[in-house]
Write a structure and sequence with these properties.
Structural class of chain A: mainly beta
Largest interface: A-B, 28 and 19 residues
Number of strands of chain A: 11
Number of strands of chain B: 11
Number of helices of chain B: 0
Oligomer: heterodimer
Number of helices of chain A: 0
Chain lengths: 112, 110
């Protein structure tokens, strides 16, 4: 059974802090994704990685960066957290050719 | 660039009524289309994909390339179908990007 695990279920951070959201998958998937989920806006892609050290910007990359040093781990970094980054963040992974994406349980981030 | 639109944020029906959740897309090539579902307090998960032409939990979806639509249908809604439904698109190439729509909340009333 595929498992995508996000390191935190809930996070509260202060404005200006550097924030790390971690995601690990255990099925040797090539693709990994970070989305943010907001009511009425659905899921918006922040970044996508199709291989180690490879990344592509999604629809809303501003204010975020990512790191993929190992195949199983994909980190989302908020360089300087702002209140408009308060959201639910979802990580997902899939095999090359994207037949199905598997999602983590989500991290609800609140920036105060 | 690809785009997915779900025009209804909320759809409320009574148990036993037919359900249709609308999805329209824009993409210049031939995409792969999916429906994902998120039940309360659960992870987002795949419901069905157009290439499989399958029926899952009584739901079906037909890709209409002329109308660029991929509507999700079920003839008789059940209370356990209440959830958030997301339509998603992936380009049919090596890109592997997965783009989602805004989602539709389906509420099935008893």
């Amino acid at each position: 059974d595929v498992k995508v695990t996000q390191s935190s279920r809930y996070l509260v951070k202060r404005t200006g802090e550097k924030v790390f959201l971690e995601c690990v998958q255990d099925m040797d998937h090539e693709n990994m994704f970070w989305y943010r989920q907001d009511p009425g806006l659905g899921l918006r892609l922040i970044y996508f990685s199709y291989d180690v050290k490879m990344k592509e910007k999604g629809d809303i990359p501003e204010g975020y960066s990512v790191s993929r040093e190992k195949k199983e781990r994909f980190s989302l970094i908020l360089e300087s957290a702002s209140t408009n980054q308060t959201s639910m963040y979802l990580c997902a992974s899939s095999l090359q050719g994207i037949i199905e994406a598997f999602f983590g349980q989500g991290t609800r981030l609140t920036v105060v | 660039a690809q785009r997915v639109t779900q025009p209804e944020k909320l759809l409320s029906v009574f148990k036993g009524a037919p359900v249709e959740l609308k999805c329209n897309y824009s993409y210049s090539g031939s995409p792969e289309l999916f429906w994902y579902v998120q039940y309360s307090r659960q992870r987002l998960q795949l419901l069905l994909r157009h290439i499989s032409r399958e029926s899952i939990k009584g739901f079906t979806a037909d890709l209409n390339k002329g109308e660029t639509s991929f509507h999700l249908k079920k003839p008789f809604a059940q209370e356990e179908d209440s959830a958030m439904y997301y339509c998603a698109l992936s380009p049919n190439n090596a890109g592997n990007m997965l783009t989602f729509g805004g989602g539709t909340r389906l509420m099935v009333k008893p």
